[in-house]
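Input.
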Amino acid sequence: MEQEQIETRSLSSFSSSMGNDDNNGERKVKSLALSSKFPLTFWEMAGASGVVLGFAVSLLGIYLTLPDSDYSFLKLPRTLEDLHILRDHLESYTSDYTIQVLVGYCTVYIFMQTFMIPGTVFMSLLAGSLFGVLKGVALVVFAATAGASSCYFLSKLIGRPLILSLWPDKLVFFQDQVAKRRDGLLNYMLFLRLTPTLPNTFINVASPIVDVPYHIFLLATSLGIIPAAYVTVKVLIVLKLSFVCFLVFEIT
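Output.
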Protein backbone atom coordinates (compact mmCIF):
# COMPACT_ATOMS: atom_id res chain seq x y z
CA MET A 1 0.00 0.00 0.00
CA GLU A 2 2.80 2.40 0.91
CA GLN A 3 4.67 1.50 -2.26
CA GLU A 4 1.61 2.31 -4.38
CA GLN A 5 1.32 5.70 -2.67
CA ILE A 6 4.99 6.42 -3.31
CA GLU A 7 4.63 5.50 -7.00
CA THR A 8 1.50 7.63 -7.28
CA ARG A 9 3.28 10.62 -5.75
CA SER A 10 6.32 10.18 -8.03
CA LEU A 11 4.15 9.96 -11.14
CA SER A 12 2.19 13.03 -10.14
CA SER A 13 5.40 14.97 -9.46
CA PHE A 14 6.82 13.89 -12.84
CA SER A 15 3.64 14.98 -14.60
CA SER A 16 3.73 18.24 -12.71
CA SER A 17 7.34 18.89 -13.75
CA MET A 18 6.54 18.12 -17.39
CA GLY A 19 3.58 20.42 -17.19
CA ASN A 20 5.76 23.13 -15.69
CA ASP A 21 8.25 22.80 -18.57
CA ASP A 22 5.45 23.10 -21.12
CA ASN A 23 4.01 26.05 -19.25
CA ASN A 24 7.43 27.71 -19.09
CA GLY A 25 7.82 27.33 -22.85
CA GLU A 26 4.36 28.73 -23.44
CA ARG A 27 5.03 31.63 -21.08
CA LYS A 28 8.27 32.44 -22.90
CA VAL A 29 6.55 32.46 -26.26
CA LYS A 30 3.77 34.64 -24.84
CA SER A 31 6.24 37.01 -23.22
CA LEU A 32 8.15 37.33 -26.48
CA ALA A 33 4.93 37.86 -28.35
CA LEU A 34 3.78 40.53 -25.94
CA SER A 35 7.09 42.34 -26.32
CA SER A 36 6.87 42.28 -30.13
CA LYS A 37 5.79 45.38 -31.98
CA PHE A 38 3.25 44.74 -34.67
CA PRO A 39 2.10 46.50 -36.65
CA LEU A 40 5.38 48.34 -37.05
CA THR A 41 5.66 52.00 -36.23
CA PHE A 42 6.15 54.64 -38.89
CA TRP A 43 9.83 55.07 -38.08
CA GLU A 44 10.49 51.35 -38.16
CA MET A 45 8.88 51.06 -41.58
CA ALA A 46 10.80 54.12 -42.72
CA GLY A 47 14.07 52.58 -41.54
CA ALA A 48 13.41 49.30 -43.35
CA SER A 49 12.37 51.16 -46.50
CA GLY A 50 15.53 53.24 -46.28
CA VAL A 51 17.65 50.08 -46.26
CA VAL A 52 15.93 48.80 -49.41
CA LEU A 53 16.29 52.20 -51.08
CA GLY A 54 19.98 52.33 -50.18
CA PHE A 55 20.64 49.00 -51.87
CA ALA A 56 18.64 50.05 -54.94
CA VAL A 57 20.55 53.33 -55.30
CA SER A 58 23.90 51.54 -54.89
CA LEU A 59 23.09 48.98 -57.59
CA LEU A 60 21.80 51.70 -59.91
CA GLY A 61 24.97 53.73 -59.44
CA ILE A 62 27.15 50.72 -60.26
CA TYR A 63 25.06 49.95 -63.33
CA LEU A 64 25.37 53.51 -64.63
CA THR A 65 29.17 53.47 -64.34
CA LEU A 66 29.53 50.37 -66.54
CA PRO A 67 30.05 50.76 -70.30
CA ASP A 68 27.14 50.57 -72.71
CA SER A 69 26.41 46.92 -73.39
CA ASP A 70 23.76 44.22 -73.21
CA TYR A 71 23.33 43.33 -69.54
CA SER A 72 20.46 40.90 -69.93
CA PHE A 73 22.73 38.25 -68.38
CA LEU A 74 22.72 40.07 -65.05
CA LYS A 75 20.50 38.12 -62.69
CA LEU A 76 20.84 36.23 -59.43
CA PRO A 77 22.25 32.78 -60.22
CA ARG A 78 19.94 29.94 -59.21
CA THR A 79 21.60 27.07 -61.05
CA LEU A 80 25.09 26.13 -62.22
CA GLU A 81 24.02 27.04 -65.75
CA ASP A 82 23.14 30.56 -64.58
CA LEU A 83 26.50 30.70 -62.88
CA HIS A 84 28.28 29.66 -66.10
CA ILE A 85 26.63 32.46 -68.04
CA LEU A 86 27.26 35.10 -65.39
CA ARG A 87 30.90 34.11 -64.97
CA ASP A 88 31.59 34.08 -68.71
CA HIS A 89 30.25 37.60 -69.09
CA LEU A 90 31.75 39.09 -65.95
CA GLU A 91 35.26 37.78 -66.65
CA SER A 92 35.62 40.31 -69.45
CA TYR A 93 34.64 43.17 -67.12
CA THR A 94 36.60 42.16 -64.02
CA SER A 95 40.01 43.26 -65.27
CA ASP A 96 38.87 46.64 -66.66
CA TYR A 97 36.16 47.44 -64.12
CA THR A 98 37.45 45.72 -61.01
CA ILE A 99 36.08 48.26 -58.53
CA GLN A 100 32.61 48.24 -60.03
CA VAL A 101 32.50 44.45 -60.11
CA LEU A 102 33.72 44.19 -56.50
CA VAL A 103 31.28 46.79 -55.19
CA GLY A 104 28.43 45.29 -57.20
CA TYR A 105 29.24 41.79 -55.98
CA CYS A 106 29.37 42.86 -52.33
CA THR A 107 26.18 44.91 -52.63
CA VAL A 108 24.23 42.00 -54.12
CA TYR A 109 25.63 39.51 -51.59
CA ILE A 110 24.87 41.77 -48.63
CA PHE A 111 21.38 42.45 -49.99
CA MET A 112 20.69 38.71 -50.27
CA GLN A 113 21.95 38.08 -46.74
CA THR A 114 20.04 41.01 -45.28
CA PHE A 115 16.69 39.92 -46.68
CA MET A 116 17.29 36.16 -46.37
CA ILE A 117 17.21 35.54 -50.13
CA PRO A 118 18.50 32.03 -50.90
CA GLY A 119 21.32 31.48 -53.39
CA THR A 120 24.39 33.01 -51.74
CA VAL A 121 26.21 29.71 -52.26
CA PHE A 122 26.28 30.47 -56.00
CA MET A 123 27.63 33.94 -55.24
CA SER A 124 30.41 32.30 -53.24
CA LEU A 125 31.20 30.02 -56.17
CA LEU A 126 31.28 33.05 -58.45
CA ALA A 127 33.84 34.78 -56.21
CA GLY A 128 36.21 31.84 -56.55
CA SER A 129 35.80 31.76 -60.31
CA LEU A 130 36.46 35.48 -60.78
CA PHE A 131 39.13 36.18 -58.17
CA GLY A 132 40.82 32.88 -57.25
CA VAL A 133 40.96 31.04 -53.94
CA LEU A 134 42.55 33.51 -51.52
CA LYS A 135 40.90 36.65 -52.85
CA GLY A 136 37.64 34.78 -53.32
CA VAL A 137 37.61 33.51 -49.73
CA ALA A 138 38.45 36.98 -48.39
CA LEU A 139 35.67 38.50 -50.50
CA VAL A 140 33.10 35.91 -49.41
CA VAL A 141 34.01 36.24 -45.72
CA PHE A 142 33.76 40.03 -45.90
CA ALA A 143 30.46 40.04 -47.82
CA ALA A 144 28.88 37.27 -45.73
CA THR A 145 29.89 38.94 -42.46
CA ALA A 146 28.63 42.32 -43.64
CA GLY A 147 25.38 40.75 -44.83
CA ALA A 148 24.86 38.90 -41.56
CA SER A 149 25.53 42.13 -39.65
CA SER A 150 23.06 44.01 -41.81
CA CYS A 151 20.46 41.31 -41.15
CA TYR A 152 21.25 41.50 -37.41
CA PHE A 153 20.56 45.23 -37.19
CA LEU A 154 17.51 45.09 -39.46
CA SER A 155 16.09 42.30 -37.31
CA LYS A 156 16.79 44.38 -34.22
CA LEU A 157 14.66 47.10 -35.76
CA ILE A 158 11.73 45.14 -37.23
CA GLY A 159 12.46 41.41 -36.95
CA ARG A 160 10.64 40.36 -33.79
CA PRO A 161 7.16 39.87 -35.32
CA LEU A 162 8.66 37.97 -38.25
CA ILE A 163 10.68 35.50 -36.23
CA LEU A 164 7.83 34.91 -33.78
CA SER A 165 5.57 33.93 -36.65
CA LEU A 166 8.15 31.75 -38.45
CA TRP A 167 10.22 30.06 -35.71
CA PRO A 168 8.59 30.40 -32.26
CA ASP A 169 9.89 27.02 -30.97
CA LYS A 170 13.41 27.57 -32.29
CA LEU A 171 13.43 31.03 -30.74
CA VAL A 172 12.59 29.69 -27.27
CA PHE A 173 15.27 26.99 -27.61
CA PHE A 174 17.86 29.54 -28.75
CA GLN A 175 16.94 31.92 -25.94
CA ASP A 176 17.38 29.16 -23.36
CA GLN A 177 20.77 28.13 -24.75
CA VAL A 178 22.06 31.70 -24.86
CA ALA A 179 20.91 32.28 -21.26
CA LYS A 180 22.71 29.14 -20.08
CA ARG A 181 25.96 29.95 -21.88
CA ARG A 182 26.46 33.62 -21.12
CA ASP A 183 29.99 32.99 -19.80
CA GLY A 184 31.06 31.05 -22.91
CA LEU A 185 28.77 32.64 -25.45
CA LEU A 186 31.48 33.15 -28.08
CA ASN A 187 32.30 29.44 -28.10
CA TYR A 188 28.63 28.56 -28.41
CA MET A 189 28.10 30.98 -31.32
CA LEU A 190 31.19 29.58 -33.05
CA PHE A 191 29.79 26.09 -32.56
CA LEU A 192 26.52 27.15 -34.19
CA ARG A 193 28.32 28.67 -37.17
CA LEU A 194 30.41 25.53 -37.71
CA THR A 195 27.58 23.02 -37.34
CA PRO A 196 24.05 22.69 -38.74
CA THR A 197 22.47 22.83 -35.27
CA LEU A 198 20.48 25.93 -36.24
CA PRO A 199 20.10 27.50 -39.70
CA ASN A 200 22.44 30.42 -40.30
CA THR A 201 19.56 32.56 -41.50
CA PHE A 202 17.76 31.95 -38.22
CA ILE A 203 20.90 32.82 -36.22
CA ASN A 204 21.25 36.13 -38.07
CA VAL A 205 17.64 37.11 -37.40
CA ALA A 206 17.26 35.73 -33.89
CA SER A 207 20.54 36.86 -32.30
CA PRO A 208 19.46 40.44 -31.53
CA ILE A 209 16.08 39.18 -30.28
CA VAL A 210 17.71 36.94 -27.64
CA ASP A 211 20.29 39.60 -26.70
CA VAL A 212 23.44 38.18 -28.27
CA PRO A 213 25.89 41.12 -28.13
CA TYR A 214 26.93 42.35 -31.56
CA HIS A 215 30.68 42.05 -30.93
CA ILE A 216 30.25 38.34 -30.13
CA PHE A 217 27.96 37.86 -33.11
CA LEU A 218 30.47 39.62 -35.40
CA LEU A 219 33.50 37.67 -34.20
CA ALA A 220 31.76 34.30 -34.29
CA THR A 221 30.38 34.98 -37.76
CA SER A 222 33.64 36.20 -39.32
CA LEU A 223 35.61 33.26 -37.93
CA GLY A 224 32.94 30.59 -38.23
CA ILE A 225 32.26 31.02 -41.95
CA ILE A 226 35.92 30.79 -43.06
CA PRO A 227 35.98 26.96 -43.40
CA ALA A 228 32.73 26.86 -45.38
CA ALA A 229 33.86 29.77 -47.56
CA TYR A 230 37.17 28.07 -48.34
CA VAL A 231 35.54 24.75 -49.24
CA THR A 232 32.91 26.43 -51.43
CA VAL A 233 35.42 28.58 -53.31
CA LYS A 234 37.88 25.70 -53.65
CA VAL A 235 35.19 23.40 -55.07
CA LEU A 236 34.70 25.71 -58.04
CA ILE A 237 38.42 26.09 -58.65
CA VAL A 238 38.92 22.33 -58.67
CA LEU A 239 35.88 21.44 -60.73
CA LYS A 240 36.04 24.56 -62.92
CA LEU A 241 32.30 24.32 -63.27
CA SER A 242 32.64 21.34 -65.60
CA PHE A 243 30.79 18.90 -63.36
CA VAL A 244 27.33 19.10 -61.85
CA CYS A 245 27.77 19.15 -58.09
CA PHE A 246 25.34 19.26 -55.23
CA LEU A 247 26.35 21.41 -52.27
CA VAL A 248 25.14 20.25 -48.87
CA PHE A 249 25.55 23.55 -47.06
CA GLU A 250 25.12 27.27 -47.70
CA ILE A 251 27.01 30.17 -46.22
CA THR A 252 25.10 32.62 -44.45
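The first helix runs from residue 2 to 35.
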